[in-house]
Amino acid sequence: MKNFKRIFCLALCVFMLATAVTGVASAEEATGAAPFRLSVTVNGDTATSRGFCWYTAEEAATKIEFDGMDESFYKVSDVVCEEWDGNYMHKLVVSELKKGTTYTYRVGDGTNWSEWGTFTTDDGDNKVSFINIADVQASNLENFQVGANTLTEAFKKLPGADFVSNCGDFTNDSTNEEWNYYDEAFGAMNKNFTIVPVAGNHDGLGVEYWFNNMFALDTTESVQIKDGVNYSFDYGNAHFAVLNTNDILAISNAQLEWLKNDMKSTDKDWKIVFMHKSPYTLGKDGKWPDALYLQDCLPGVMAECNVDMVFSGHDHQYLRTKPLTNGQIDANGTTWVLSGTAGTKRYEVRPFLAGHFMNTDHIANLVVQKDGYGNYWDGFSWENTTERNIGYCFETVEIDGGTLTLKTYIVNEKTGMTNIVDEIDFTKKTGENKITFEGDNTTSEMDYTLNIIPSFFNLAKYAIGTWLPEFFAMLPELLYSVIVYDTF
Ligand SMILES: [Fe+2]
After folding, report:
1. C-beta atoms surrounding 417 within 10 Å
2. Which CATH architecture is the domain 125-427 placed in?
3. I want to staple 289 with a disulfide (CB 3.0 to 4.6 A). Which of 122, 203, 351, 467 is the partner?
4. Radius of gyration of the chain measured on its C-alpha atoms
């Protein structure tokens, strides 16, 4: 009995000591004022302005400092310090910077500073280049590191990228733990480039305000900021619009109107859209009405506004369409690029979608990043497979005057080698786009609320009138896929 008591007391002491050690470790973490989760975003004029967002574990002042530059040479505005989910979110916007200049900066409270980071403002010429990634959607550090390695490889291919667009699903559940893993894996890079973030469903749906609270974006024209943010900017001779496809499950009438006005309010030579959900896909989510609704409502706007290219994510495979105008092949149409995942979660091809929700004649390039069935599409058969395609995906885009070059790469899962899997040049006559909208492009809360019912009605009309009959027509092929390939 005595021995039992001794063992019990010893076990209790060990338990209490372990708890105390853990407690001290997390308490230290909880009291720090050192900045973490730092990001630099486009915010306003890319030649003169940037947004900054970071976190501290305790309440602290929100300051930025530039190496060798007095405060009188720039303006700081929109300063925010708010508690968010147990930490403190800091945001500010720096403007009145000089174009074409590389700045070295750090953020903090005046005593506790981040490491120095750098960014470069747009120089105003007719060139812009960027790296695009999507869908890291990780839950553990190891998988975030795979995504970060993909981005490292991308910078080797395009070291001078003006910005990095991320088509969404940064994390799986938008928890503090996951965003900290994201920061641990990407943080060293994040402070040294400008990011164009896109809200994924994992960043916005059911995890309200996380996306907006992770990035200092210009939300003045956003239709709402709860589930994501829509915004736009110019860089070089291109105009970029970022959509929020969490808005009423896909896109509201208000956001469609915003997109139309936004694209009509620019005379830039190239018009590019970033969004999360994909209308043209052969992936897992290509069978659901929310993503497919985008096939119904976006092509008309893209055609009306001469949008050249749309980048999306969500379906974790790479697919580039031929240029399409209102769903028909047309050399002057819009090219739709499903980005492929930079992370480890990769989706098989769903051949049952072909001929129903995806016309295979419209596919210019398809790369399924997994081994086995449908890994490679040659235009005729799903049976092909190639080792080259198995890995993690990123794109580079370089615009120089009237030429846009898109290159898509896979970082091979086994060898770590980076192989090009798609490459295409687009050319156009510059100076053709005209401004046809000048005015207020903001959406009032009242307008948005009044639009909710018609927006849902449009989605429901599409789901019942178009999607459902086609889904039933596809059902035999879908069931065959489930039985034979165990793929839904
Ligand atoms: Fe997604």
Report:
1. 11
2. 4-Layer Sandwich (3.60)
3. 467
4. 24
Query: Which stretches of 170-304 are DSSP H helices?
Result: 176-190, 201-204, 210-214, 253-264, 289-304
| Percent of the chain's residues with pLDDT above 90 | 89
Rounded to the nearest 10 degrees, the angle between the axes of helix 445-462 and helix 253-264 is 110
User: 481: CA distance to ligand 1 center in Å?
Assistant: 22
Q: Computed from CA positions of residues 316, 317, 318, 322, in that sequence, does the dihedral angle turn out positive or negative?
A: negative
Structure tokens that stand for 204 in this block: 């916005």
CA distances from 98 to 95, 333, 482 (A): 9, 36, 57
Q: Tell how far the Cα of 351 is from the centroid of ligand 1, in angstroms.
A: 20
Tokens of 459: 């989605």
At residue 349, what is the residue type? V
Alpha carbon of 375 to ligand 1 centroid (Å): 21
From residue 94, alpha-carbon distances to 50, 51, 353 in Å are: 6, 6, 47
Cα(393) to ligand 1 centroid in Å equals: 16
- What's the gap in Å between 269 CA and the centre of ligand 1? 30
Sign for the CA dihedral angle at 219, 445, 277, 178 comes to positive
Q: Which tens digit of pLDDT belongs to each residue from 166-219?
A: 999 999 999 999 999 999 999 999 999 999 999 999 998 889 999 999 999 999
Look up residue 164 and give its two tokens. 């990095």
The residue ranges of every structural domain in the chain are 36-119, 125-427
Question: How many A from CA of 201 to the centre of ligand 1?
Answer: 5
Instruction: State in Å: Cα 168 to ligand 1 middle.
Output: 7
Measure 1 CA to ligand 1 centroid, in angstroms: 59
Centre of ligand 1 to C-alpha 237, Å, is: 30
Helix (H) or strand (E) segment spanning residue 26? helix 2-31
The answer to whether 270 touches 304, Cβ cutoff 8 Å, is no
Task: Give the 3-state secondary structure of residue 306.
Answer: coil
Domain 36-119 architecture: Sandwich (2.60)
CA dihedral 287, 291, 295, 296 (to 10 degrees): 100
Q: Give exposure, 115-147, as e/b (b: 16+ Cβ within 10 Å).
A: eebebbbbeeeebbbbbbbbbbbbeeeebbbbb
What one-letter code names the amino acid at 46? T
Q: Token digits for 159?
A: 């070291």
Query: What's the CA-to-centroid distance between 244 and ligand 1, angstroms?
Result: 12
Judge whether 150 and 157 are in contact, CB under 8 Å.
no
Residue 61: pLDDT over 50: yes
Distance (Å) from CA 166 to ligand 1 centroid: 12
How far apart (Å, rounded) are the C-alpha atoms in residues 174 and 138?
Answer: 10
User: What is the reported pLDDT for 4?
Assistant: 40
User: What would the two tokens of residue 14 be?
Assistant: 């060990």
Give the Å distance between the CA of 172 and the centre of ligand 1: 9
